[in-house]
Amino acid sequence: MARAAAPLGARLGWLLLPQERAVEIWRGDQRGLAERLEDLSRLDGAELAEGLGLDLEEIWVV
After folding, report:
1. Helix ranges restricted to H, the chain
2. Radius of gyration of the chain from Cα atoms?
3. pLDDT in tens, 3-40
4. FRET partner for 16 with CA separation of 20 to 30 A, picked from 3, 7, 10, 26?
């Protein structure tokens, strides 16, 4: 995902993995390295996308 989005100028990417209750987060300055977080109830864009948020509880029900 990061390799595909980086040339387009993406600064932030989220990959949601409902079966694993995990999220992989790519930031444009990480050169393709993802941060993996598990069992979150909410995800937010922090400094890269201030005000952007996603409630994950309904997604994890899948």
Report:
1. 2-5, 57-60
2. 12
3. 555 556 778 889 999 999 999 988 877 666 888 999 99
4. 7
